[in-house]
Amino acid sequence: MATLMHKTSSERKVAPVHYWEAKYAATDRTWSGKPNQVLIDLASTLKPGRALDLGCGEGSDSIWLANLGWRVTGIDISATATARATAAVHDSGLSASRVEFVTQDLSTWHPVTTYGLITCCFLQSPVELEREAILSRAASAVAPGGHLLVVAHAAPPPWSNLAHGDHDFPTPEGDLAALAIDPSEWEILVSEVREREVTDPEGNPAVLLDSVVFLSRR
Ligand SMILES: C[S@@+](CC[C@H](N)C(=O)[O-])C[C@H]1O[C@@H](n2cnc3c(N)ncnc32)[C@H](O)[C@@H]1O
Fold first, then answer.
1. Helices and strands per DSSP (H, E), number in the chain
2. Residue 216: how many CB atoms within 10 A of its CB?
3. Cβ < 6 Å from ligand 1: which residues?
4. Distance 69 CA to ligand 1 centre (A)
5. CA gyration radius, the chain
6. Between the N and C ends of the chain, which has fewer C-beta atoms within 10 Å?
């Protein structure tokens, strides 16, 4: 599970691959190692098939899906992140045939097959990221009867000094617009901002806001 990053003006100019490699290289583990709760809440009862995890980070969502029986591909721009994800698969005892991790910049990614589930959890960045174009390509790769989950930080954490203008905070409406959803082709299962209870850096309870869009392709 990811938390939000600060964006400084100098960071905005850094090449995405350099930014993310430096971020992952700075610590042995960057995220919590737990799958995102919204994925658990929405995907637990889906019939497993092929899944794609865009911006998979250290692989916790992909591994959770693979343990449910999905055949998963996780893509991330950071080779350090995908190497950690691959090592986590090995450590978990999961068959390597159930989940693969690919190091790739999603700005140059074009799907070559379709998936029963595509997840895009917190694919947000303080540096350049063609998020809307990536979401649009992701939608095109969902198989009939398949699902698309898009989750994003909808507001700065209450403990941060980030302002809305310092970072992109997607809304469900904005993501639906980016996806150009045709109601005859898609059913909107969830489109809302959800509250998530967390512990702030001081150890106190806090609430984060997540934009959640969950679609089913007819
Ligand atoms: C906030 S993290 C979220 C990681 C994970 N999905 C999670 O929920 O814990 C954003 C991830 O997107 C990846 N990312 C950012 N820009 C990318 C790009 N252009 N192509 C592929 N991955 C990218 C980063 O390397 C990072 O792992």
1. 7, 7
2. 15
3. 1-2, 16, 20, 31, 36, 55-57, 76-78, 81, 105-107, 121-125, 129
4. 23
5. 16
6. C
Per-residue pLDDT tens digits for 201-211: 999 999 999 99
pLDDT tens-digit readout, 78-125 = 999 999 999 999 999 999 999 999 999 999 999 999 999 999 999 999
| pTM for the full predicted model | 0.93
State the distance from the centre of ligand 1 to the C-alpha of 40, rounded, in angstroms. 19
User: Which amino acid, 10?
Assistant: S
Element containing residue 60 per DSSP (H, E): helix 60-67
Distance from Cα 168 to the centre of ligand 1, integer Å: 14
CB 167 within 8 A of CB 4: yes
